[in-house]
């Protein structure tokens, strides 16, 4: 039954658009939900168009207990009443406002909710599923930053179900003593529960649990990458997209182990480093259990490194390099922005903490001194190499434009691209060639924080978000200043088409114009210089790879966390963790005994993996053999193919820390 509940009208960017919303309900084994059917009309010249069934604020676990692992929810409401799923749930606690985009939403520890945007909740055809993980350095972010209007137009409208969700952040999600007092990776384990929910429940919303793509940006990309390594989650999806983020970027020991947990214990509860190191946590436990959640996260306003995924638990039982050989060889799409670090330079200038004249050799060395401590006694050697490579051997000390660009290039390589290089090299070492690389080089105009003087072509971190999610706020602001042109709308279409192609077909293009990576030779990547990207065969970030993964390793040894004190896990141990976890996942089995969703099996997963093609001809020829539980499912699947200044007097080190308050990832 559908009841008219809302009509909204707005001035669209390419014409007026309106949202007509009506009630829609669905019954599931965990309870009945009331969402809304939204209709933006069918005029494709409008900024928003298309329609979908939207369910918001669905709890995927029980209200979490502080510093304890989340537990799946078996019933959405205690009394069996229909759950109202028509608004986003509260954000998870974080420093500052609840969402980095300034959205005025409440915060709560009971924040573990997800949202489903589906073409038709009652469809007998099961659509491919895209599960998005938001970024924010594992300390900021919320699902409300990615509203359904843009998702419906640019993703759902192309034939996929989209799921977004929230997970515990900051101290509440990633503080650990590596003991039962404060278990590891709680935020990542929340994500595992969200992925399990998708496997168990998405069929009731028109989604296909056998065709799940997880994708994320920044720390969301870090999370996606981490799930490909983890024995707890690597079988809960079939494809992955990593946007400007891979596991090593926010991993314990990468770019130095900063002892953030130990520092928080001392700063918030006056627990000495001696007591922390010797396992004396009684005082800490009492302090943290009784502390206001706002106080637990407030110090992230000056956190310049973000929180870290840690190793040694069931989620991440070893370092990524040792786990890589156990990963599933699945289709993977990954890439970066040309000038990732320029985002932070934009923020510095927008806050008037720096200006163009601030950028000198001295400022570069100041930044490197703050962020390069992990290099130890090799720091000066590496600093000189970076200056020579990214600024030039004879660079003038006070060429401001040159040092602005050199700073961006050097720290883009240090914090982003060298890790992405390692990620896809691990896959290649495993024989996985179903990988596609990209670099966005189209100058950032949508959602631009600040015009960098002398650097108008900068493509900073997060540049793709406004295009992929078709964010009205960012497009509207850009249009008001005269920035937007047709290429921007076309690029938004390109992102929507390409990302959903990958989710539906296991490859970004239906032809071979974007080749997957070869087993040997130069890496091929897509240069997204506009709405008609071109293939670059010259190698992905070759200079950065040489600097960080060859020269630095020769100087310093492997700075990636090979030095962590972990034992090398065996295949049997890895599989034992996976099996043990699987045996404890049926907590709702009795409640869900009427669930008709097919049971996943290892053999079925393996069959599906092996059938994902690498060329269009293979894809078409394989469709008749696609594994599915019913003849109706086979028919619906086949039908898919018939349709389609930094000096001491200007900027001290404390100010520098503040300027990066929520910026890293």
From TrEMBL:
Protein's organism: Pristionchus entomophagus
Entry annotated with the keyword Nucleotidyltransferase: no
InterPro entries (UniProt xref): AB_hydrolase_fold, CarbesteraseB, Carboxylesterase_B_AS, Carboxylesterase_B_CS, Type-B_Carboxylest/Lipase
Family: Belongs to the type-B carboxylesterase/lipase family.
Signal peptide positions on this chain: 1-16
Domain Carboxylesterase type B: 25-531
Alphabetical list of Pfam families matching this protein: COesterase (PF00135)
The protein's name in its UniProt record: Carboxylic ester hydrolase
Entry keywords, A to Z: Hydrolase, Serine esterase, Signal
Sample GO molecular function, one term: carboxylic ester hydrolase activity
UniProt EC number: 3.1.1.-
């Amino acid at each position: 039954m559908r009841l008219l509940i809302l009509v909204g009208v707005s001035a669209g960017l390419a014409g007026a658009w309106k949202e007509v919303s009506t009630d829609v309900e669905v019954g599931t084994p965990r309870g009945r939900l009331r969402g809304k059917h939204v209709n933006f009309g069918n005029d494709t010249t409008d900024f928003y168009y298309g329609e979908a069934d939207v369910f918001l604020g669905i709890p995927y676990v029980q209200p979490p207990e502080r510093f304890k692992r989340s537990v799946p929810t078996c019933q959405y409401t205690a009394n069996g009443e229909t759950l109202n799923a028509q608004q986003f749930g509260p954000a998870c606690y974080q420093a500052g406002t609840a969402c980095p985009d300034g959205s005025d939403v409440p915060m709560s520890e009971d924040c573990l909710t997800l949202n489903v945007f589906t073409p038709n909740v009652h469809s007998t055809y099961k659509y491919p599923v895209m599960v998005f993980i938001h970024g924010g350095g594992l300390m900021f972010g919320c699902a409300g930053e990615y509203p359904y209007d843009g998702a419906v137009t640019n993703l759902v409208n192309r034939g996929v179900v989209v799921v977004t969700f929230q997970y515990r952040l900051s101290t509440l999600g990633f503080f650990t003593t590596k003991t039962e007092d404060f278990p590891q990776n709680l935020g990542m384990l929340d994500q595992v529960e969200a992925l399990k929910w998708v496997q168990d429940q998405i069929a009731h919303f028109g989604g296909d649990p056998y065709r799940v793509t997880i994708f994320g940006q920044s720390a969301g990309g870090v999370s996606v990458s981490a799930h490909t390594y983890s024995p707890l989650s690597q079988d809960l999806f079939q494809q992955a997209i990593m946007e400007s983020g891979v596991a090593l970027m926010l991993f314990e020991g990468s770019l130095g182990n900063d002892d953030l947990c130990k520092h928080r214990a001392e700063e918030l509860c006056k627990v000495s480093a001696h007591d922390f190191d010797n396992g004396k946590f009684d005082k800490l436990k009492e302090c943290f259990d009784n502390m206001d959640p706002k106080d637990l996260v407030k110090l992230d306003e000056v956190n310049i490194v973000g929180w870290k995924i840690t190793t040694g638990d069931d989620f991440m039982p070893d370092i990524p390099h040792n786990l890589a050989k156990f990963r599933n060889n699945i289709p993977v799409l990954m890439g970066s922005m040309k000038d990732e670090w320029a985002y932070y330079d934009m923020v510095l200038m927008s806050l008037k903490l720096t200006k163009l004249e601030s950028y000198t050799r001295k400022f570069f060395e100041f930044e490197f001194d703050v962020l390069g401590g992990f290099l130890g006694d090799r720091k000066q050697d590496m600093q000189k190499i970076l200056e020579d490579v990214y600024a030039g051997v004879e660079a003038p000390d006070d060429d401001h434009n040159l040092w602005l660009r050199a700073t961006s290039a050097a720290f883009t390589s240090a914090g982003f691209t060298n890790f992405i290089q390692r990620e896809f090299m691990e896959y290649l070492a495993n024989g996985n060639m179903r990988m596609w690389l990209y670099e966005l080089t189209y100058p950032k105009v949508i959602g631009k924080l600040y015009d960098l003087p002398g650097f108008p072509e900068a493509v900073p971190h997060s540049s793709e978000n406004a295009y992929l999610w078709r964010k009205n706020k960012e497009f509207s602001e850009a249009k008001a200043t005269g920035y937007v042109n047709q290429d921007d709308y076309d690029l938004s279409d390109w992102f929507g088409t390409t990302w959903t192609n990958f989710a539906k077909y296991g490859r970004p293009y239906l032809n071979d114009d974007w080749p997957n990576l070869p087993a040997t030779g130069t890496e091929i990547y897509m240069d997204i210089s506009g709405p008609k990207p071109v293939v670059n065969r010259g190698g992905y970030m070759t200079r950065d790879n040489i600097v960080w993964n060859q020269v630095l390793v020769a100087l310093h040894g492997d700075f990636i966390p090979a030095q962590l004190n972990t034992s090398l896990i065996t295949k049997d141990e890895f599989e034992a963790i996976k099996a043990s976890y699987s045996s404890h996942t049926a907590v709702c089995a009795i409640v869900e005994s009427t669930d008709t969703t097919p049971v996943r099996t290892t053999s079925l997963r393996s069959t599906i993996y092996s059938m994902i093609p690498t060329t269009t001809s293979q894809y078409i020829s394989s469709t008749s053999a696609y594994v599915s539980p019913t003849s109706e499912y086979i028919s619906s699947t086949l039908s898919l193919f018939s349709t389609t200044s930094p000096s001491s007097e200007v900027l001290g080190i404390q100010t520098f820390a503040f300027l990066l308050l929520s910026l890293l990832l």
